[in-house]
From TrEMBL:
Entry superkingdom: Eukaryota
Keyword Lipid metabolism listed: yes
Location relative to the cell: Peroxisome
Stated name of the protein: 2-hydroxyacyl-CoA lyase 1
Gene Ontology annotations for the cellular component aspect, listed alphabetically: peroxisome
Gene name linked to the record: hacl1
Lineage start: Eukaryota, Metazoa, Chordata, Craniata, Vertebrata
Species per Swiss-Prot/TrEMBL record: Sander lucioperca (Pike-perch)
């Protein structure tokens, strides 16, 4: 055993736990930690705001199954990261935040950027601790990494006293194994199969827990053998391809409303699924709930059958039951016909909107052309209100964990951090996969300076800003000028408005990336083709659309009220 510094011990402890990526912003007292991380073989990505750094580190957790690390300085640095920790917890994604903090002899002394960090992080994490000695660092980091992945995944925090960074200690580190996997009780499996077999209008809902749990292979076989229709949640998209014949995403409202039995695979009955309650669900719907978190079972709806355990294993158990007697839900039922009719009708409406040749373009036209050009294996990152909602219905996913969006917490500002994480994984694993970030103009603004990070590391992310001059909607440049003449804009400009035709493309060119100002279908197609052929640097397409463009009307929503996230 040889002696190392505290910084080296932190880095080697993370590496020993197979943490391969670190995102952060350095300063006193953590510069040495970032340098030691690189020396230990961890990839370090310096970001521009700790919030985006934490979003990126948590996306690594979702994409790879091992947490990314987020390295921040004390006080304000850690506080910026709290948004990322909250978002990771809400999404059930593992991440480990390492925060520098006051020296051991300066606690409560009014030290530089001193803050009650461990206490603060408790609300934002599953585990929050400050190693009491250098010798304790490896075991606290092991516990943080393990806790972030075991049970329901989430955020963990390790506080590092500033004076520990350069102190010397003997090293001892060992790795925690992958999370243990549990099966559902076999009696409950038998019951679930009999409920499914008795269903008249069954529906499988695939959530991002199924994506995180890497259940895609077993699930595909289960869906194909059982013949059941399935509906992905936003980030459940791609676990099975969106163009799979059993996918009923285009009939979402109908499928949810009329299903009599729902097999719920790794999705919470929260706002994303309308709480599993009327008016969006049948009041008598029988839910077969699959989750590894026992506390989740029964939230909002009492399940007909609860299958507690790992989705991949449980789907394999269900598959065993279906395989044994060759049961299959018939393809010629009234339920399938209803769903198929609805899918065809909805496709017609979207197509009509997409083919409108009005100028400026509407959302549907933009997404129609974007979807034609995107490669099937690209990772789509998306955020914004209309941009994310309409984009989700029109941009297909064909592979699991290839969609990252505002998620359970509906967080705006996650996109660029997520895209940077995906690009870092793409680069290190040589996947030759495009990362495409579809952003509303407002959403882009939250972490816009991260384009510098993309340019600095030559990460060839393609950013498409669907620019409607505002939050939900905006005004055109002429109206804006008229308003400015009428008086002080702070008194009269609608709070939803942003600067009309803002040149977000120039933010990208400022740092050496490609920028495109796009107004027409032709410009959109050629800019996207050029961007997709460039593997050297990032691109940003600033797509100016009609500031009053809206989603097609949905009977569930009052057209006069616009809320932040609509799901149809
Ligand atoms: P969505 O956003 O798709 O609706 P949620 O994030 O609400 O999904 O729900 C995901 C659920 O999946 C969480 O309740 C989480 O506990 C669960 N989960 C995560 N991984 C697994 C796994 N491997 N097996 C079973 N359940 C899982
Ligand atoms: Mg907008």
């Amino acid at each position: 055993m040889d002696e190392v510094t505290g910084a080296q011990l932190i880095a080697e402890s993370l590496k020993a736990q197979k943490v391969e990526y670190m995102f952060g912003i350095v300063g006193v007292p953590v510069i040495e930690v970032a340098m030691a991380a690189q020396a230990a073989g961890i990839k370090y990505v310096g970001m521009r705001n700790e919030q985006a750094a934490c979003y990126a580190a948590s996306a690594i957790g979702y994409l790879t199954g091992r947490p990314g690390a987020c390295l921040v300085v004390s006080g304000p640095g850690l506080i910026h990261a709290l948004g990322g920790m909250a978002n990771a917890n809400m999404n059930c994604w593992p991440v480990v935040v390492i925060g520098g903090s006051a020296d051991r002899n300066q606690e409560t002394a009014g030290a530089f950027q001193e803050f009650p960090q461990v206490e603060t992080c408790r609300l934002y994490s599953k585990f929050s601790a400050r190693p009491s000695s250098l010798e304790a660092i490896p075991s606290v980091i092991e516990k943080a990494v393990r806790t972030s992945m075991y049970g329901r995944p989430g955020a963990c925090y390790v506080d590092i006293a500033g004076d520990m960074v350069n102190a010397k200690v003997d090293r001892i580190v060992s790795c925690c194994p992958s999370p243990p996997v549990s099966l559902a009780h076999h009696g409950a499996i038998t019951e679930a199969i009999s409920v499914l077999k008795a269903a008249k209008r069954p529906l499988v809902i695939i959530g991002k827990g199924a994506a995180y749990g890497r259940a895609e292979t077993a699930l595909r076989e289960f869906v194909e053998k059982s013949g059941l229709p399935f509906l992905p949640t936003p980030m459940g998209k791609g676990v099975l391809p969106d163009d799979h014949p059993n996918c009923v995403a285009a009939a979402r409202s109908r499928a949810l409303l009329q299903a009599d039995v729902v097999l719920l695979l790794g999705a919470r009955l929260n706002w994303i699924l309308h709480f599993g309650l009327p008016p969006r669900f049948d009041p008598d719907v029988k839910i077969i709930q699959v989750d590894l978190c026992a506390e989740e079972i029964g939230n909002n709806v009492k399940p007909a059958v609860a299958l507690l355990g790992d989705i991949n294993s449980i789907v394999t158990q269900l598959l065993g039951g279906v395989r044994n007697d060759g049961w299959k839900y018939p393809s010629d039922t009234e339920w399938w016909n209803t769903l198929k009719d609805k899918i065809a009708a909805n496709a017609k409406i979207s197509k009509a909107l997409a083919l409108q040749s009005t100028m400026p373009m509407n959302y549907y036209t933009v997404f129609h052309h974007v979807s034609q050009l995107l490669p099937h294996d690209c990772i789509i990152v998306s955020e914004g209100a209309n941009t994310m909602d309409i984009g989700r219905t029109m941009l297909n996913n064909y592979l699991p964990r290839h969609r990252l969006d505002a998620g359970t917490f509906g967080t705006m500002g996650v996109g660029l951090g997520f895209a940077i994480a995906a690009a870092a994984v793409e680069r290190s694993e040589n996947k030759n996969q495009r990362i495409v970030c579809v952003e509303g103009d407002s959403a882009f603004g939250f972490s816009g300076m991260e384009v510098e990070t993309m340019c600095r590391y030559n990460l060839p992310v393609v950013i498409i800003v669907v620019n409607n001059n505002g939050i939900y909607s905006g005004v055109d440049p002429e109206t804006w000028k008229e308003m400015a003449k009428m008086g002080d804009l702070t008194s009269i400009a609608p709070p939803v408005t942003l600067l009309p035709e803002a040149r977000y493309d120039e933010v990208m060119t400022a740092f050496g990336g490609r920028g495109f100002l796009v107004r027409t279908v032709e410009e959109l197609r050629s800019a996207l083709q050029l961007s997709l052929s460039d593997w050297e640097r990032p691109s940003l397409l600033n797509v100016l659309i009609d500031p009053s463009s809206d989603r097609k009307q949905c009977p569930w929503l009052n057209p006069n009220v616009k809320t932040s996230v609509h799901l149809q």
